[in-house]
Amino acid sequence: MRSMNPSTRGSAGSSSIDAETGHTPDIHGARLAAGEYAHVFDDLHPPLTRHEAIVESDRCYFCYDAPCMNACPTGIDIPLFIRQINAGNPVGAAKTILSENILGGMCARVCPTETLCEEVCVRETAEGKPVKIGNLQRYATDVLMAEGKQPFKRGAETGKHIAVVGAGPAGLSAAHRLAMKGHQVTVFEARPKGGGLNEYGIAAYKTVNNFAQRELEFVLEIGGITIEYNQTLGQDITIEALKAGHDAVFLGMGLPGVNDLGLAGEDAPNVLDAVDYIANLRQAKDLSALPVGRNVVVIGGGMTAIDVAIQTKKLGAVNVTVVYRRGQESMNASAYEQELAQIHGVVIRHWLRPHALERSGDGTVHAVTFEYTGNQDGKLVGMGEYLTLEADQVFKAIGQTFDPEPLRGSGIGMAKGRISADAEGRTTVEGIWAGGDCVAGGKDLTVASVEAGKIAAESIHATLTRRPQAVEGFAEAVLSGGAHHTTAPSRDRNVPSDQWATTQLGNEQG
C-alpha cells in the first residue's frame, strides 16, 4: 500500500494515528486572522472600468455570422452588445443581453466562457487570446443595475396564473418571461431565499456583495411575480394541488440530492456533502466561525469539487487534495478551473477511486484509502494498488441527484432518473412543463437552465393563448448542450447606435 507524507507537494498524507485509541479531527474555525477573510474571498474577477471596457470591446471584429453567438446557449447577440459598449452605450448593451438571458449578470460571473463563447472567438482561434466576452457582459449589466433601470415592461394582464416550482435559474427565467407576457406567476421555493444554485451553490469568491439577491430583486421588479418561500414539493405543496389551482405548472426544482460514496462510515460527522458546505459558507455571517479541517480530501471531479476545494483552502486548510477516479481530460471541471485550484495550492490527483473510509474509535474518519484505477477496453477498473490520504475533513462531490418522490403518482414520466420533457419542456402530463437540471439530458449549467426556462415560458404562453409555437433547436441547445436562438439573429448592426437597444427589444416589451 502506498502512502503520502502530508508535507509532500502540499497534499494530505497517510495517517499515523492509532484508530483504536480514537482520533479528534483537526477541524475548527478562525484559521486566518480576522482581517484576512474579506481579502481572500474578494471578487475573483474585478469588474472592468469604463476605459478598460472600451479598450477590450475595440478588440472585437463584430462578426456577422459570429461563432461566439452560436456558442451561447441563450443566443445572446454578442457582437451587437459589444458594439454597443464600444459606442458608449452600456445600458443598451445590457438590454441586448438581458432580452435573451435575464440572469445575464450572474452568468457573466459564473459561465464557463472559456469553453463556450470565448473558446470559439475568432481572436482565440487566430491569437490564443479571445475577447473577454464574460467581463464585457458583466460590465454592461452592472452599469444598468447600478443605474436602477428596468428595461422590461409587463404586458397587458391575461388573467392566466402559472405556478413555478423552484426559484433557481430555470424557474426565475420562466417566471420573468411569463410575467413579461402579462401572466400572473407564483413561484414556490423550498428554501428561505430565492436564487437556487446562484444563491446557495456558487463559490463565494465568484459572486460577491450579495449579487444573487440583488439580481433576484431586479427580476421581480417587472411585477406579476410572487415568491412563496419554505414551500417544498411533496410536503407543503403537491403536483395535484398546483395543477388544480393554476392554468399551467412549470417544474424547475434542480437537483436537491447528492450521490453517496457507497462506503461504510460516510455518515461520520466529518464526512460532508460539498453542496451543503458551500451553501453554509454562502449564508455564513462570519466566515471565521465556519469550521474547516487542516487536511481536507475532496472526492469528485466537477465544479463543485473544485469550488469546495478552493474555498476550504481560502478558509485556512493546510493541505487540500481533490481526488478523481479518471484522467484529467475526463473531469467535468474546466481546464481553467483546475488550474485555478492549483494556483490556490490545491493538489489534484487522478486515476484513484475511494475504497475505504478509515475510522477511529470515536467514529470519525481519519483517512481515506483509494484504489488506483485504469482504463481497460473503455472500462474503469481497479488496479489492486492503494493509496491512503490523511483527512480531518472529507467532502463528497460526486454529482447531484433528482428526487422523484414528490412526483410519484402524478403521471409525469421519468428518463435517466430525471423528468422526461419534449423540445419545449412539456412533460407527459398536459399542462405541466419542466426545465433545467431536473430534466433528463439537460446540461448542468446555469446558462442552459435559463434558456430552458425561457423556452418553456414561450411554449406555455403559446398554449394558453392558443397560438402556434415555433421553437427550433431546443433539443440541440438544452438536451445536447448546443446553441440556438428563439429569434432569428438578423438584427441590423448598421442602424444608429442610439437605436440598437430599441431594435433588439422591439418584441420583448409588449
From TrEMBL:
Q: Where in the numbering of this chain does the FAD/NAD(P)-binding domain appear?
A: 161-452
UniProt lists compositionally biased (Polar residues) regions at 1-18, 496-510
In residue numbers, the region (Disordered) covers 1-25, 481-510
The record's section on Gene3D superfamilies has: Alpha-helical ferredoxin, FAD/NAD(P)-binding domain
Domain of life, source organism: Bacteria
Q: Where is the signal peptide?
A: none
Residues of the Dihydroprymidine dehydrogenase domain: 40-147
Extract the GO molecular function terms from the UniProt entry: iron-sulfur cluster binding; oxidoreductase activity
Protein name per the record? NAD(P)-dependent oxidoreductase
Native organism is Ochrobactrum soli
